[in-house]
Write a structure and sequence with these properties.
By secondary structure, the chain is an alpha/beta fold. It has helices at about 10-20, 35-40, 65-75, 90-100, 145-155, 165-190, 195-200, 205-210, 215-225, 230-250, 255-280, 305-315, 345-355; strands at about 5, 25-30, 55-60, 80-85, 105-110, 135, 160-165, 295-300, 320-325, 335-340, 360. Among the domains are: about 5-165, 3-Layer(aba) Sandwich (Rossmann fold), CATH 3.40.50; about 295-360, Alpha-Beta Plaits, CATH 3.30.70. The chain has 13 helices and 11 strands. The chain has a 7-stranded mixed beta sheet, with helices on both faces. β6, α5 and β7 (about 160-165) form a beta-alpha-beta unit.
Length: about 350
Protein backbone atom coordinates (compact mmCIF):
# COMPACT_ATOMS: atom_id res chain seq x y z
CA UNK A 1 0.00 0.00 0.00
CA UNK A 2 1.49 3.31 -1.10
CA UNK A 3 -1.50 5.65 -0.88
CA UNK A 4 -4.79 5.91 0.98
CA UNK A 5 -7.81 8.18 1.22
CA UNK A 6 -9.41 8.51 4.64
CA UNK A 7 -12.96 9.86 4.41
CA UNK A 8 -14.04 11.03 7.85
CA UNK A 9 -11.43 12.53 10.17
CA UNK A 10 -12.88 11.82 13.59
CA UNK A 11 -11.19 9.73 16.26
CA UNK A 12 -11.04 6.46 14.27
CA UNK A 13 -10.29 7.90 10.84
CA UNK A 14 -7.56 10.23 12.06
CA UNK A 15 -5.99 7.51 14.23
CA UNK A 16 -5.84 5.17 11.23
CA UNK A 17 -4.39 7.97 9.10
CA UNK A 18 -1.71 8.70 11.71
CA UNK A 19 -0.75 5.01 11.80
CA UNK A 20 -0.56 4.81 7.99
CA UNK A 21 1.45 8.02 7.71
CA UNK A 22 3.88 6.69 10.30
CA UNK A 23 4.45 3.66 8.02
CA UNK A 24 5.25 5.84 5.02
CA UNK A 25 1.86 5.70 3.27
CA UNK A 26 0.74 8.88 1.51
CA UNK A 27 -2.61 9.68 3.13
CA UNK A 28 -5.23 12.06 1.76
CA UNK A 29 -7.90 13.32 4.16
CA UNK A 30 -11.49 14.27 3.43
CA UNK A 31 -14.41 15.21 5.65
CA UNK A 32 -17.82 16.84 5.29
CA UNK A 33 -16.33 19.47 7.64
CA UNK A 34 -13.20 20.78 5.88
CA UNK A 35 -11.95 22.32 9.11
CA UNK A 36 -11.85 18.92 10.75
CA UNK A 37 -9.79 17.54 7.85
CA UNK A 38 -7.41 20.50 8.17
CA UNK A 39 -7.07 19.81 11.88
CA UNK A 40 -6.20 16.16 11.20
CA UNK A 41 -3.65 17.27 8.58
CA UNK A 42 -2.08 19.68 11.07
CA UNK A 43 -1.67 16.78 13.47
CA UNK A 44 0.43 14.93 10.89
CA UNK A 45 -2.26 12.53 9.68
CA UNK A 46 -1.77 13.39 6.00
CA UNK A 47 -2.81 16.07 3.56
CA UNK A 48 -6.26 17.56 3.07
CA UNK A 49 -5.55 17.94 -0.65
CA UNK A 50 -7.49 15.62 -2.96
CA UNK A 51 -5.50 12.81 -4.61
CA UNK A 52 -4.61 13.28 -8.28
CA UNK A 53 -5.95 9.84 -9.14
CA UNK A 54 -7.17 6.59 -7.59
CA UNK A 55 -5.45 5.60 -4.36
CA UNK A 56 -4.71 2.06 -3.23
CA UNK A 57 -7.25 2.03 -0.38
CA UNK A 58 -10.17 4.23 0.60
CA UNK A 59 -11.07 4.08 4.30
CA UNK A 60 -14.57 5.34 5.07
CA UNK A 61 -14.79 6.45 8.69
CA UNK A 62 -18.26 7.98 8.61
CA UNK A 63 -21.03 7.35 11.18
CA UNK A 64 -22.98 4.11 10.52
CA UNK A 65 -26.04 5.95 9.20
CA UNK A 66 -23.95 7.62 6.48
CA UNK A 67 -21.52 4.82 5.61
CA UNK A 68 -23.51 3.38 2.70
CA UNK A 69 -24.00 6.77 1.06
CA UNK A 70 -20.35 7.76 1.38
CA UNK A 71 -19.20 4.36 0.11
CA UNK A 72 -21.59 4.49 -2.83
CA UNK A 73 -20.20 7.89 -3.89
CA UNK A 74 -16.63 6.63 -3.53
CA UNK A 75 -17.33 3.46 -5.54
CA UNK A 76 -19.07 5.39 -8.30
CA UNK A 77 -16.19 7.89 -8.39
CA UNK A 78 -13.62 5.06 -8.67
CA UNK A 79 -11.53 6.75 -6.00
CA UNK A 80 -9.51 3.66 -5.07
CA UNK A 81 -8.55 0.08 -5.91
CA UNK A 82 -10.12 -1.11 -2.66
CA UNK A 83 -12.67 0.23 -0.20
CA UNK A 84 -13.30 -0.49 3.45
CA UNK A 85 -15.38 1.11 6.17
CA UNK A 86 -14.67 1.12 9.90
CA UNK A 87 -18.21 1.58 11.22
CA UNK A 88 -19.30 -0.30 14.34
CA UNK A 89 -22.21 -1.98 12.49
CA UNK A 90 -21.67 -4.16 9.43
CA UNK A 91 -24.83 -5.90 8.20
CA UNK A 92 -27.00 -2.83 7.57
CA UNK A 93 -24.54 -0.78 5.45
CA UNK A 94 -23.76 -3.78 3.22
CA UNK A 95 -27.46 -4.47 2.61
CA UNK A 96 -27.99 -0.80 1.74
CA UNK A 97 -25.17 -0.99 -0.81
CA UNK A 98 -26.59 -4.21 -2.27
CA UNK A 99 -29.96 -2.55 -2.86
CA UNK A 100 -28.17 0.11 -4.93
CA UNK A 101 -26.98 -2.59 -7.33
CA UNK A 102 -23.28 -1.71 -6.96
CA UNK A 103 -20.43 -4.12 -7.63
CA UNK A 104 -19.14 -4.79 -4.11
CA UNK A 105 -16.19 -7.03 -4.99
CA UNK A 106 -13.83 -4.14 -4.14
CA UNK A 107 -15.53 -3.46 -0.78
CA UNK A 108 -14.87 -5.03 2.62
CA UNK A 109 -16.68 -4.11 5.84
CA UNK A 110 -14.39 -3.85 8.86
CA UNK A 111 -14.59 -2.71 12.48
CA UNK A 112 -11.62 -1.89 14.74
CA UNK A 113 -12.65 -2.76 18.30
CA UNK A 114 -11.03 0.28 19.82
CA UNK A 115 -12.05 3.74 20.88
CA UNK A 116 -12.04 6.35 23.60
CA UNK A 117 -14.59 8.37 25.55
CA UNK A 118 -13.44 11.45 23.59
CA UNK A 119 -14.13 11.99 19.89
CA UNK A 120 -12.74 14.09 17.07
CA UNK A 121 -9.27 14.36 15.50
CA UNK A 122 -7.70 15.94 18.59
CA UNK A 123 -8.40 12.73 20.51
CA UNK A 124 -6.70 10.58 17.85
CA UNK A 125 -3.47 8.67 18.36
CA UNK A 126 -1.43 6.45 16.06
CA UNK A 127 -1.37 3.63 18.62
CA UNK A 128 -5.13 3.57 19.26
CA UNK A 129 -5.47 0.12 17.69
CA UNK A 130 -2.33 -1.52 19.13
CA UNK A 131 -3.13 -5.08 20.18
CA UNK A 132 -6.87 -4.61 19.66
CA UNK A 133 -9.13 -6.88 17.57
CA UNK A 134 -10.01 -5.55 14.10
CA UNK A 135 -12.98 -7.42 12.63
CA UNK A 136 -13.07 -8.16 8.89
CA UNK A 137 -16.32 -9.35 7.27
CA UNK A 138 -15.45 -10.65 3.78
CA UNK A 139 -17.98 -12.44 1.61
CA UNK A 140 -17.50 -14.86 -1.29
CA UNK A 141 -17.65 -11.85 -3.60
CA UNK A 142 -14.79 -9.99 -1.87
CA UNK A 143 -11.75 -9.54 -4.09
CA UNK A 144 -8.57 -11.07 -2.63
CA UNK A 145 -6.62 -7.88 -3.35
CA UNK A 146 -9.02 -5.87 -1.18
CA UNK A 147 -8.72 -8.38 1.65
CA UNK A 148 -4.93 -8.15 1.42
CA UNK A 149 -5.05 -4.35 1.52
CA UNK A 150 -7.29 -4.49 4.59
CA UNK A 151 -4.92 -6.93 6.28
CA UNK A 152 -2.03 -4.61 5.49
CA UNK A 153 -3.90 -1.72 7.10
CA UNK A 154 -4.61 -3.80 10.20
CA UNK A 155 -0.93 -4.75 10.38
CA UNK A 156 0.24 -1.14 10.02
CA UNK A 157 -2.12 -0.19 12.87
CA UNK A 158 -0.76 -2.95 15.11
CA UNK A 159 -4.19 -4.56 15.47
CA UNK A 160 -5.21 -8.24 15.43
CA UNK A 161 -7.40 -9.34 12.48
CA UNK A 162 -10.56 -11.31 13.30
CA UNK A 163 -12.77 -12.68 10.49
CA UNK A 164 -16.53 -12.81 11.15
CA UNK A 165 -19.86 -12.86 9.36
CA UNK A 166 -21.36 -9.36 9.25
CA UNK A 167 -24.61 -10.16 11.08
CA UNK A 168 -22.77 -12.28 13.67
CA UNK A 169 -20.52 -9.29 14.26
CA UNK A 170 -23.51 -7.01 14.84
CA UNK A 171 -24.97 -9.41 17.42
CA UNK A 172 -21.58 -9.70 19.10
CA UNK A 173 -20.96 -5.96 19.42
CA UNK A 174 -24.50 -5.50 20.73
CA UNK A 175 -23.50 -7.87 23.55
CA UNK A 176 -20.00 -6.63 24.36
CA UNK A 177 -20.24 -2.93 23.45
CA UNK A 178 -23.60 -1.38 22.62
CA UNK A 179 -25.74 -2.86 25.41
CA UNK A 180 -23.06 -2.29 28.11
CA UNK A 181 -22.79 1.35 27.05
CA UNK A 182 -26.51 1.90 27.59
CA UNK A 183 -26.42 0.09 30.93
CA UNK A 184 -23.47 2.26 32.00
CA UNK A 185 -25.49 5.33 31.00
CA UNK A 186 -28.50 4.13 32.98
CA UNK A 187 -26.38 3.70 36.11
CA UNK A 188 -24.68 7.09 35.64
CA UNK A 189 -28.07 8.75 35.14
CA UNK A 190 -28.95 7.84 38.76
CA UNK A 191 -26.18 10.25 39.82
CA UNK A 192 -27.48 13.29 37.93
CA UNK A 193 -29.79 14.51 40.68
CA UNK A 194 -28.33 12.57 43.61
CA UNK A 195 -27.44 14.38 46.83
CA UNK A 196 -23.94 15.81 46.80
CA UNK A 197 -23.19 13.97 50.05
CA UNK A 198 -23.95 10.67 48.32
CA UNK A 199 -21.90 11.49 45.20
CA UNK A 200 -18.87 12.28 47.35
CA UNK A 201 -18.88 8.65 48.46
CA UNK A 202 -18.21 7.41 44.91
CA UNK A 203 -15.43 4.84 44.86
CA UNK A 204 -13.63 2.84 42.21
CA UNK A 205 -16.58 0.53 41.65
CA UNK A 206 -18.94 3.27 40.46
CA UNK A 207 -16.12 4.84 38.43
CA UNK A 208 -15.52 1.53 36.64
CA UNK A 209 -19.22 1.02 35.89
CA UNK A 210 -19.84 4.58 34.62
CA UNK A 211 -16.58 5.29 32.77
CA UNK A 212 -17.95 4.69 29.28
CA UNK A 213 -21.05 6.77 30.02
CA UNK A 214 -18.86 9.83 29.36
CA UNK A 215 -18.92 9.19 25.59
CA UNK A 216 -20.51 11.56 23.07
CA UNK A 217 -24.32 10.95 22.99
CA UNK A 218 -24.64 12.07 19.36
CA UNK A 219 -22.08 9.49 18.24
CA UNK A 220 -23.87 6.74 20.18
CA UNK A 221 -27.27 7.64 18.78
CA UNK A 222 -25.77 7.02 15.31
CA UNK A 223 -24.34 3.68 16.43
CA UNK A 224 -27.46 2.44 18.21
CA UNK A 225 -29.74 3.57 15.39
CA UNK A 226 -27.83 1.22 13.08
CA UNK A 227 -28.10 -1.81 15.40
CA UNK A 228 -31.30 -1.37 17.43
CA UNK A 229 -32.78 -4.88 17.20
CA UNK A 230 -29.98 -6.93 18.80
CA UNK A 231 -29.43 -4.26 21.46
CA UNK A 232 -33.15 -4.16 22.32
CA UNK A 233 -33.23 -7.96 22.60
CA UNK A 234 -30.35 -7.94 25.06
CA UNK A 235 -31.78 -5.07 27.08
CA UNK A 236 -35.05 -7.01 27.26
CA UNK A 237 -33.13 -9.88 28.87
CA UNK A 238 -31.43 -7.45 31.27
CA UNK A 239 -34.82 -5.94 32.12
CA UNK A 240 -36.18 -9.38 32.96
CA UNK A 241 -33.22 -10.02 35.26
CA UNK A 242 -33.71 -6.62 36.88
CA UNK A 243 -37.39 -7.29 37.47
CA UNK A 244 -36.57 -10.64 39.04
CA UNK A 245 -33.88 -9.05 41.21
CA UNK A 246 -36.23 -6.28 42.36
CA UNK A 247 -38.76 -8.90 43.43
CA UNK A 248 -36.02 -10.79 45.28
CA UNK A 249 -34.90 -7.65 47.11
CA UNK A 250 -38.48 -6.81 48.08
CA UNK A 251 -38.83 -10.33 49.45
CA UNK A 252 -35.80 -9.71 51.66
CA UNK A 253 -37.84 -6.99 53.38
CA UNK A 254 -40.62 -9.43 54.26
CA UNK A 255 -41.37 -10.50 57.82
CA UNK A 256 -41.93 -14.00 56.47
CA UNK A 257 -38.75 -16.09 56.84
CA UNK A 258 -39.60 -18.27 53.81
CA UNK A 259 -39.97 -15.19 51.61
CA UNK A 260 -36.66 -13.81 52.88
CA UNK A 261 -34.96 -17.09 52.03
CA UNK A 262 -36.53 -17.02 48.57
CA UNK A 263 -35.35 -13.44 48.09
CA UNK A 264 -31.81 -14.29 49.14
CA UNK A 265 -31.76 -17.20 46.71
CA UNK A 266 -32.92 -14.90 43.89
CA UNK A 267 -30.18 -12.35 44.57
CA UNK A 268 -27.59 -15.10 44.89
CA UNK A 269 -28.66 -16.53 41.53
CA UNK A 270 -28.02 -13.32 39.60
CA UNK A 271 -24.71 -12.77 41.42
CA UNK A 272 -23.57 -16.32 40.63
CA UNK A 273 -24.49 -15.90 36.97
CA UNK A 274 -22.56 -12.65 36.98
CA UNK A 275 -19.51 -14.46 38.34
CA UNK A 276 -19.86 -17.12 35.63
CA UNK A 277 -20.04 -14.50 32.90
CA UNK A 278 -17.23 -12.34 34.23
CA UNK A 279 -14.68 -15.15 34.22
CA UNK A 280 -15.29 -15.62 30.48
CA UNK A 281 -13.96 -12.13 29.73
CA UNK A 282 -10.53 -12.69 28.10
CA UNK A 283 -7.56 -11.86 30.28
CA UNK A 284 -4.13 -10.47 29.48
CA UNK A 285 -3.21 -10.63 25.78
CA UNK A 286 -6.60 -12.26 25.06
CA UNK A 287 -5.70 -15.39 27.00
CA UNK A 288 -7.95 -17.26 29.40
CA UNK A 289 -8.63 -15.24 32.57
CA UNK A 290 -5.98 -15.61 35.26
CA UNK A 291 -6.39 -15.22 39.00
CA UNK A 292 -3.87 -12.71 40.33
CA UNK A 293 -2.96 -11.64 43.83
CA UNK A 294 -3.41 -7.94 44.54
CA UNK A 295 -0.81 -5.94 46.45
CA UNK A 296 -2.29 -2.59 47.51
CA UNK A 297 0.10 0.32 48.05
CA UNK A 298 -0.69 3.81 49.38
CA UNK A 299 0.94 6.54 47.29
CA UNK A 300 1.00 10.32 47.45
CA UNK A 301 -0.22 12.35 44.49
CA UNK A 302 3.29 13.45 43.56
CA UNK A 303 5.24 13.34 40.29
CA UNK A 304 7.27 10.18 39.81
CA UNK A 305 5.49 8.04 42.40
CA UNK A 306 4.22 5.47 39.89
CA UNK A 307 7.61 5.32 38.17
CA UNK A 308 9.27 4.63 41.54
CA UNK A 309 6.89 1.87 42.51
CA UNK A 310 7.23 0.14 39.13
CA UNK A 311 11.02 0.45 39.32
CA UNK A 312 11.04 -1.04 42.82
CA UNK A 313 8.88 -3.94 41.62
CA UNK A 314 11.31 -4.49 38.77
CA UNK A 315 14.28 -4.55 41.16
CA UNK A 316 12.43 -7.23 43.14
CA UNK A 317 12.17 -9.28 39.94
CA UNK A 318 8.35 -9.15 39.93
CA UNK A 319 6.32 -8.60 36.76
CA UNK A 320 3.25 -6.40 37.23
CA UNK A 321 0.45 -8.16 35.31
CA UNK A 322 -2.09 -5.36 35.70
CA UNK A 323 -2.55 -2.17 37.67
CA UNK A 324 -5.46 -0.05 38.92
CA UNK A 325 -5.55 3.20 40.82
CA UNK A 326 -8.23 4.13 43.34
CA UNK A 327 -8.16 7.83 44.18
CA UNK A 328 -8.93 8.87 47.74
CA UNK A 329 -11.83 11.32 48.01
CA UNK A 330 -10.70 14.76 49.19
CA UNK A 331 -7.08 13.70 49.73
CA UNK A 332 -3.88 14.03 47.73
CA UNK A 333 -3.31 10.29 47.86
CA UNK A 334 -4.50 7.08 46.28
CA UNK A 335 -4.27 3.32 46.40
CA UNK A 336 -2.37 1.51 43.65
CA UNK A 337 -3.53 -2.06 43.16
CA UNK A 338 -0.70 -4.13 41.70
CA UNK A 339 -1.87 -7.46 40.23
CA UNK A 340 0.82 -10.14 40.24
CA UNK A 341 1.14 -13.92 40.08
CA UNK A 342 0.11 -15.34 43.50
CA UNK A 343 3.57 -16.78 44.20
CA UNK A 344 5.15 -13.35 43.56
CA UNK A 345 2.94 -11.41 46.00
CA UNK A 346 4.90 -12.15 49.23
CA UNK A 347 8.23 -11.17 47.65
CA UNK A 348 6.77 -7.96 46.19
CA UNK A 349 5.13 -7.03 49.49
CA UNK A 350 8.37 -7.54 51.40
CA UNK A 351 10.45 -5.64 48.83
CA UNK A 352 8.11 -2.65 48.75
CA UNK A 353 7.92 -2.48 52.54
CA UNK A 354 11.72 -2.54 52.69
CA UNK A 355 11.80 0.46 50.36
CA UNK A 356 9.39 2.43 52.55
CA UNK A 357 6.08 1.90 50.80
CA UNK A 358 2.91 1.66 52.91
CA UNK A 359 1.17 -1.63 52.11
CA UNK A 360 -2.57 -1.90 52.67
CA UNK A 361 -4.61 -5.05 52.99
Amino acid sequence: MRSALVIGTGLIGTSAALALTRRGVTVHLADHDPQQARTAAALGAGTDEAPAGPVDLAVVAAPPAHVAGVLADALRGRLARGYIDVASVKGGPRRELETLGLDLSAYLGTHPMSGREKSGPLAATADLFEGRPWVLTPTRATDTEVLNLALELVSFCGAVPVVMDADAHDRAVALVSHMPHLVSGLVAARLEHADEAAVRLCGQGIRDVTRIAASDPAMWIDILSANPGPVADLLGDVAADLEQTVRALRALQSADEDKRQEGAAGVADVLRRGNAGQVRVPGKHGSAPRVYETVVVLIDDQPGQLARIFADAGRAGVNIEDVRIEHATGQQAGLVQLMVEPQAAPALTAALRERGWAIRR
